[in-house]
Design goal:
Protein Transport Mog1p, Chain A; 222 residues; 7-stranded antiparallel sheet; alpha+beta; 3-stranded antiparallel sheet
Length: 222
């Protein structure tokens, strides 16, 4: 039986994967974001258009791709797994809560606003905070995830709600443009954490107990 540390380790693995792309260091823009134009993209599981000049920077994984807007210091990571809802349940016990709910093109999205410290040493006073918007949509057979990671150098207003520029001028148009596609051989969430289905089910049972307020459930997992 894995200990409670497996949840923490697993979450850190996912966070590292999400934040693994080095953010751009281009010059800041004083332009109007509403006139940036769009950049179309297409993957096996999703297609649509980013706002602005956005370049693919990492597609080594079939079901995870990273894109970068150097002008505005934004990184987008998009991915798919069989059960994105379970992943968000794990994030919730780490403090990522209270999503806004929106529907675009027949797809229901949960939109989370959160932050992360830039750098490996979270205790350093020199670290800066990145704002992150997570968009999650669970379909019948697979879930879809978009992470918008906003570098502290960004010149956009990243107010962490649906009234901020980062959402209204960047995320909302992106979600409105999307077509979600059903994929074959979608990664299983338990395999992404390096667990068997039974092990993952046990961990998710602990997650549900913690969400319900039973924090002592973790002590029983030792």
């Amino acid at each position: 039986m894995e200990t409670k540390n497996i949840i923490i380790i697993a979450v850190l693995v996912v966070v590292i994967a999400i934040l693994g792309v080095v953010l751009g260091t281009g010059m800041l823009s004083n332009g109007n974001t509403k006139d940036l134009g769009t950049t179309p993209f297409e993957t096996e599981f999703m297609e649509g258009s980013f706002v602005g000049d956005v370049k693919l920077v990492n597609d080594t994984e079939k079901f995870m791709h990273s894109y970068e807007d150097k002008q505005h210091h934004i990184t987008y990571n998009i991915s798919t797994v069989d059960n994105s809802t379970a992943l968000m349940d794990i994030y919730e016990i780490q403090g990522v809560t209270n999503p806004e709910e929106r529907s675009f093109n027949g797809n229901d999205w949960n939109i989370y606003f959160t932050q992360a410290v830039q750098g490996n040493d979270t205790s350093s006073k020199d670290n800066e905070t990145m704002n992150i918007i997570i968009c999650e949509s669970q379909g019948e057979k697979q879930g879809y995830l978009i992470y918008m990671i906003i570098d502290p150098k960004s010149d956009i207003n990243s107010t962490m709600n649906t009234y901020g520029e980062s959402y209204t001028d960047f995320i909302k148009p992106l979600l409105e443009s999307l077509t979600l596609k059903e994929s074959k051989n979608v990664p299983k969430i338990n395999e992404e954490f390096g667990l068997t289905e039974d092990q993952f089910a046990e961990q998710m049972d602990l997650v549900r107990q913690v969400k319900a307020g039973n924090t002592s459930a973790l002590e029983g997992a030792q």
